Amino acid sequence: MLHRDVILVPSETRALHRTPRRKKKTMITIHLRYQIDAAAIDAFIEYAERWMEIVPRFGGVHHGYFLPAEGDSDEAFALFSFPSLAEYERYREASLVDPDSVAAYDLAQRTRCIVRYERRIQRPLLPRT
């Protein structure tokens, strides 16, 4: 409620009646941690190369795979982003029937290059441009 002694100028009155702004889409980044079979690293590389081509076709940006170099020989990571969680969910549904995605899944199953994986959905904090 307004006090009687407050006088609103026209611009302040308009501000009170603005429609709420739409919520801004929040970009998400998927962080995958793989436990891989070190003896099947070549198969895992082929699997990774396939997904780096598939994800952009569905509107995502693939930031690459990070393979063992020093230290643990059975741990790898991948990062890719989508403009929103809804767009990521659409990608996940579409990839279940996409022939290239299915072939990549089949490659991993057939070669057993992936022992297990963990998926985390994160909100990136990026430098201001």
How would you concisely characterize the structure shown here?
This protein is an alpha+beta fold. The chain has 4 helices and 4 strands. Residues 1-17 have low confidence and may be disordered.
Structure keywords:
129 residues; alpha+beta; Alpha-Beta Plaits; four-stranded antiparallel β-sheet; 4 strands; 37% helix; globular
Note down, in words, how this protein is organized.
- The structure is a single chain.
- The protein is built from four helices and four strands.
- It has 129 residues and is an alpha+beta fold.
- The protein has a single domain, classed as Alpha-Beta Plaits.
- A four-stranded antiparallel beta sheet has the order 2-3-1-4.
- Helix 2 packs antiparallel against helix 4.
- The longest helix has 17 residues.
Shape: globular
Helix percentage range: 25-40%
CATH class: Alpha Beta
Please state the average pLDDT score: 87
Distance between the termini: 41 Å
| CATH fold-level topology | Alpha-Beta Plaits
Q: Cα-atom Rg, whole angstroms?
A: 23 Å
Beta strands, count: 4
The largest sheet, given as strand count, sense and whether it forms a barrel, is: 4 strands, antiparallel
How are helices and strands ordered from N to C?
HEHEEHHE
Count structural domains.
Answer: 1
Tell me the number of helical segments per DSSP (H or I, 4 or more residues long): 4
Q: Supply the CATH architecture.
A: 2-Layer Sandwich
Q: In terms of structural class, how would the helical and strand content be classed? A: alpha+beta
Estimate what percentage of residues fall within beta strands: 15-25%
